[in-house]
Design goal:
single chain, about 110 residues, mainly alpha, globular
Length: about 110
């Protein structure tokens, strides 16, 4: 199980995620980007990735500075949480393009 999987498992089970987040941050230095990659690679559902991004965002609020990438990923998932216009799919219209742009993906 990867540390991203451990974070999601803790979230799904209602367990505290701070220890999993700390461990993942020590391993990769960019846990929120790893959540975004896992979502884009279809290893996480939108709901799982959004929940993980929200938890990571809350955890990062205690940091002295939040990296631009972390904000961009959080914002991308946040934009997918609600419909901006009738009939739109906010994940397709907002989340996916914003994540790809934040991570430097061409498509």
């Amino acid at each position: 199980m990867t540390s991203v999987d451990a974070i999601v498992t803790d979230l799904v089970n209602g367990e505290p995620v701070a220890d999993s987040i700390r461990q993942h941050a020590e391993e990769t230095k960019s846990p929120i980007a790893d959540v975004a990659h896992a979502f884009l690679d279809e290893r996480l559902t939108y709901s799982e990735a959004d929940a993980a991004a929200n938890q990571l965002w809350m955890f990062m609020q205690s940091a002295d500075a939040i990296p631009d990438l972390a904000y961009a990923v959080f914002d991308a998932f946040d934009q997918g949480e609600y419909h901006h216009a009738p009939g739109d799919d906010p994940i397709v219209v907002y989340t996916l393009p914003k994540l790809r742009a934040a991570l430097g993906h061409d498509t």
